[in-house]
Amino acid sequence: MPYELSDITLDQEQCNKIETFIGICNVVAHQPREYALLYLNYNHWDLEEAIKLFLHIHDVGIGTRKNFLYNDEDGYFYPALPEMTVLKETTIGLGEGVSPGSRITKTFEVGNTGIIPWPLNCTLRYVEGDNYAENAIIEIKSLKPGESDTIHITIVAPNLPGTVLISRWRMFDSSTGMPFGDSIWCIVGVETDGIMDLTQMIADLELKRKENI
């Protein structure tokens, strides 16, 4: 499990209370530390809400709760976490090079392939690689299960012809700082005779022309 107390900022009193909750989960329900941390993450690290959820499940049974997944391997029900899948890249001029110093937009269709809505304050963030994006953090609207949307990453190519820019992006729940879903790989080839920026400019002008008809 990817969650630890070190992943978020807590004062010592909060840490002590959470450690107590982890101990209760272990003693009362014979559930491991990671399971208790999932309760906390599911409730945005609100200890009181995590305890309520824990007691609710063990008082009235998991059958009354939605948004939980059963793990056949260990026999536990786990709170479902957000899921994001990259469905396809829809960049205009995909496969073409980019001229040095030009500004282009990489476009991806993504979908909520999980069983719970995305957080209300989720963001797409640059996490590693060649960062030539205009914005390293991009606000993304919440999607319900089964919904899809298009996201855009604007890149300003450096004056370095022959360079291939590769960057990795992840979706984050901003309230917890936890990433979720697929990585988005943004790959751009900078070429002296690159035409992606021109292709996108023409497509944009054509779209505006149609809108004005």
UniProtKB/TrEMBL annotation:
It comes from the Eukaryota. One of its GO terms (molecular function) is ubiquitin binding. One of its GO terms (biological process) is macroautophagy. CDD domains: NBR1_like. PANTHER family: OVARIAN CARCINOMA ANTIGEN CA125-RELATED, PROTEIN ILRUN. InterPro entries: Ig-like_fold, Nbr1_FW. GO terms for cellular component: phagophore assembly site. Residues 91-190 form the Nbr1 FW domain. It comes from Strongyloides venezuelensis (Threadworm). This is N_BRCA1_IG domain-containing protein.
